[in-house]
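Appendix B, example 12.
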Amino acid sequence: MVKLNWGMIGGGEGSQIGPAHRLGSGLDGAFSFVAGALDHRPEEGRAYGQRLGLAADRSYGDWREMLEGEKNRDDRVDLVTVATPNATHFEITKSFLENGFNVLCEKPMTMTVEEGEEIVKIAKATGKICAVNYGYSGYSLVRHMRAMVARGDLGKIRLVKAEFAHGHHADAADADNPRVRWRYDPAQAGVSAQFADCGIHALHMASFVTGQEVERLSADTVSCIESRVLEDDAMVNFRMDGGTVGRLWTSSVAIGRQHGLTLQVFGETGGLRWSQEQPNQLYYMPLNERLQVIERGEANLSPEADRTTRVTIGHAEGMPLAFANIYSDLDEAIRAQKEGRAIDPAADLYPRAEDGLRSMAAVFAVADSGKDNGTWVDARPPMFR
């Protein structure tokens, strides 16, 4: 099998997210890392790219140079990952899509709903893939949850409860730490801090697993550390288009919580519970029966779970493997596109530009509702109403 060419913008030396993408993209041997603009400092980016094995002429100083260098090559990249600061995502993603590249963009895809709608329209007009890295949806048992819900194992879904709460910004003495402060500064972060950073992961997972979209919501947002302009804790109630009731809590001041991404789904005939910090177990309670523990990698799981199981049962599954499953989906999608065939349904699960747009609409809805004492507001982007 001929490898696809992959390039990365951002994710340079010292980046938290860069190594996870490089590990994930390379895990299956489907992508070759051939091009990059890895740092906002051109010379440092070029040097780091070459240390990672990029050819000198494809280790670029910035994304514009990379676009110019790649767009006319016969061996140009098949997929570009955008892992730069949030405010740059829209311009870079738009430019690469318009020049015929497939894009995987880190979340948030854009800073405004209007920008998100433009990206959706451009992706549709160009026919190119625009994915958004809600990477936690790549976990094998999250996909098995989705499959169980879709095949009716839980009956009609009544309630979904999502959490993404940690305590890593709970120290008020950190208020002036630049690595923390920018997250709560509207000039740099936009209209939301904690919900835009973590809450949208939990909200996307609720939609991904239930197969339903959020229609309206009510939010209680608060800055527990009073010097912060933007929220560090939020409780969001929401209603979904299939009738499911949703509850979501996200916080950065929950001392004792480490990562805190969990999802519970309750239907007429059963319930499910999964935690990202213990990703190998899915807890399933059928109505009037005993609790069952489903282990990642065991026999007779769904095709979606089997396809995304990388290591044998009993060994830990981690975030880079979840990212690898997103890249595996994109590999299959790009190859299907090139070959003019249908994508494998078990791989047709990568988050789309539409998901990025819905998340941004939810961010603004939470901000508006929080300012108005929890008033219920429409959480849908205008183009989906």
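The chain has a mean pLDDT of 96. Residues 67 and 95 are 8 Å apart (CA to CA).
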